[in-house]
Amino acid sequence: MINYEELFSDNIKSMKRSVIRELLKLTQKDGIISFAGGLPSAESFPVSELKEITNEVYEKYGEKALQYGSTEGLPMLLSELIKLMKDSEKITLKEENISITIASQQGLDLVGKIFLNPSDICIVESPTYVGAISAFNSYRGNMVSVELDDEGIKTDILDSTIQKLKRENKKPKFIYVIPDFHNPAGVTMSLKRRKELVEIASKEKIMIVEDSPYRMIRYRGNNIPSILSLDKENLVIALFTFSKIFAPGFRLGWAVGPKEIIDKFIVAKQATDLCTSTFNQYIAALFLNKGLLKKTVERTIKIYKEKNELMLENLEKYMPKNKGVKWTKPDGGLFLWVSLPEKYDSDKMFQKAIEKNVAYVVGSAFYANGEKKNSFRVNFSYPSKDEIVEGVKRLAKVIDEFVK
Questions:
Q1: Rounded to two decimals, what is the model's pTM?
Q2: Pairing of strands 174-177, 121-126
Q3: Residues 8-46: pLDDT tens digits?
Q4: What DSSP string runs through 6-49?
Q5: What is the CATH number of domain 66-292?
Q6: pLDDT tens across 359-381, in order?
Q7: Residue in 69, 18, 101 with CA at minimum distance from that of residue 272
Q8: For the domain bounded by 4-45+295-402, which CATH number is listed?
Q9: Rounded-to-integer distance, Cα 48 and Cα 68, Å
């Protein structure tokens, strides 16, 4: 009998199954209300518009759309994205500054692939996106965590962390942040912190990776300039995706950065998949060209704002009082973050939640080393309004019994 373990690379041995994907298996039983996924609402999908555009792609570009394409991306789509970035971010880009990706998760994988050797240091927020942890782990990067609060990453702690690493003759390859409607924490980085982050990165000559999957989905407050728009020294790589503003099934995203880094993105991507689906890119290009993205985002914002307010209202109504239970109040995005007093373990509470037919994502999944367990993430974009109300009631009962 062959010993497969002897054949596996060190890289694959360091990889783990996605905690969220594994948890979703447990949420499939009948009657369970799941706040665990990060799924957009199906109500937001532009189904009728896409039917017409798909037919148009077949009629106008049929043979080209079904063929291989360039790794960089379809020129028509790149052109539309340059317009979009100009309109939404006030940034002027050239095609050499953009690469099409298979959503933002591939962007994270490519960041790890081009920057991280085994044991190389990168700085992440605490907590941070579980998909980034998986991507950077797959290249055996050493993630150093910096705490965040309601204004985003704590820049004073970030600076002191970098200084400590310097004294040890270590330099981070990049700082990874999710500034808008953070996943999982739901917070938004303040303008002050964004400027301080850019100043620190400039002083220390460290790249910033700005992950922006939810940036357009703001339903309260004023838009804050992106870190990309504040950067004057080509220190920022920004990752965007159509998954939360268009449709996740298309698996389309784009990376923006200095020409030298985008070149490496393309080389790394060629070794992975040659090119992103040409057919899907044609559809996205026409969708943007016809001005339909704005309409879809507006519809999405309306749906999520109502669900967000409903969840917050019911958390206030049903969560046990005087037991130290707290939650964030995001102004956009798909998630909020619930915290118990520090001595309680949401991993242990999860099974009790499943028994009560409600599910969430355990907080430890969002820490690079699983260091904290008293919080958990809930999603409000996917469940129906009735499920939100009933699910919060069930969750409140679980917490009330658990936090004693």
A1: 0.95
A2: parallel
A3: 888 887 777 666 666 666 556 778 999 998 899 999 999
A4: GTS-HHHHH----HHHHHHHHTTSTT-EE----PPPGGG--HHH
A5: 3.40.640.10
A6: 999 999 999 987 899 999 999 99
A7: 101
A8: 3.90.1150.10
A9: 27
